[in-house]
Design brief:
Blueprint (H helix, E strand, L loop, with lengths): L10 H9 L6 H20 L2 H17 L10 H18 L21 H20 L2 H11 L5 H8 L3 H19 L8
Helix pairs in contact: 2-3, 2-4, 3-4, 5-8, 6-8
């Protein structure tokens, strides 16, 4: 293959191939970006099934609108913005009236300590509930910084916000999470 294998090509080169008719090359972009998109969606919506659907819908929309990607070298950031909009739309939908439980808590392996597994499950659910109670902008900034480990500069580019605004969102999210997750019952003594 001239120019290396598909896995070695840049996002821009793969986008060019797809636009030239090599539709199968899009699978490389999916493999490169789907995990990060899923992780972000999971943090935003708290449900693995919904996160998976949102990530998949975003990648499908990115494929169908690939000609609209102005900077193919930044395909990942462009697909992230599509996912972000899907997540925000989902969160605005007031028809949702249930809080999903983390799917990975349903079954514990036999060798696991059931008490430890229960504690971890309860902690994970408390964190998801706390994250879900944050305003979407704070939750998103917090997840990008502390889960995706993005720099403030990368976050600013993805979210089209200033670094100082993002630092403030992350700080406020941290403060809110500390209050929400603080041990209860330490009294007014």
């Amino acid at each position: 293959m001239v120019g290396g294998t598909s896995e070695e090509l840049s996002d821009a080169q793969i986008v060019a191939r797809v636009l030239a008719g090599d539709r199968e090359s899009y699978a490389v972009l999916v493999r490169r970006h789907q995990e990060g998109l899923y992780r972000h969606a999971l943090g935003m919506v708290g449900s693995g099934d919904v996160a998976s659907d949102l990530a998949q819908e975003s990648l499908i929309k990115a494929y169908s609108r690939l000609r609209a990607c102005k900077d193919p070298s930044r395909f990942g950031a462009w697909a992230f913005r599509i996912l972000r909009n899907h997540c925000l739309d989902y969160l605005k939908d007031r028809r949702r009236d249930t809080v999903p439980l983390a799917e990975d808590t349903a079954f514990a392996e036999e060798r696991d300590d059931p008490e430890l597994t229960l504690e971890q499950t309860e902690l994970r659910q408390a964190v998801y509930r706390a994250l879900e109670s944050l305003p979407a902008a704070q939750r998103e900034a917090f997840l990008l910084k502390h889960v995706d480990e993005r720099s403030y500069e990368e976050m600013a580019e993805l979210l089209d916000a200033s670094v100082s605004a993002l630092k403030m969102r992350v700080m406020r999210a941290r403060e809110a999470l500390q209050l929400l997750l603080a041990p209860q019952g330490h009294g007014d003594m």
